[in-house]
Amino acid sequence: MFRPAGPADASTIAFHRYPEGIDAAERPVYAAWVADALERGVYLGFLAVGAAGEVVAGAGLTLLEWGPTRGDPQPWRGRIVNVWTEPGFRRRGLAREGVTRCLEAARERGVTRLSLGTTDAGRALYRELGFRTSGTEMVRRA
After folding, report:
1. Is pLDDT above 70 for 74?
2. Distance, first Cα to last Cα, the chain
3. Which residue among 43, 55, 65, 107 is least enclosed by CB atoms within 10 Å?
């Protein structure tokens, strides 16, 4: 039911990233980035396909070249992104399987540090998969 994402799936992944109509203008730029990132191997996506061949869920792993840090010689970090399930297919374990595939892909590459953003609805799932809340992250936009 799940398959790896390829560059041809970039528009679908962009929809998962920006499902709300208000954000539709963001989709083409993100789709172009995803297609390139998939080709470069720094984005790994996994898509669940329904009986009619339609994509019904997905999850992605963005690999970030972070550099070695104190206590961790691994230069890569991972960020779980674009976890999304078609409303009619929710509560069937598809998000869990997609994220699990991302975790396995990270493990295969030796990536030991992962992060993600979440909604209240997803928080319990991510806790079950070993993620913990971290209150130390700060951001700045120029």
Report:
1. yes
2. 42
3. 65
Q: Report, as an integer, the average pLDDT of 81-110.
A: 96
Question: Dihedral through CA 85, CA 86, CA 87, CA 91, nearest 10?
Answer: -40
- For residue 84, name the pLDDT band (cuts at 50, 70, 90): very high
Task: Indicate yes or no: pTM above 0.85.
Answer: yes
Q: Which long-range contacts (CB under 8 A, 24 or more apart) does 90-98 make?
A: 94/48, 94/56, 94/57, 95/57, 95/59, 95/122, 95/125, 96/125, 96/128, 96/129, 97/2, 97/48, 98/2, 98/46, 98/47, 98/48, 98/57, 98/58, 98/59
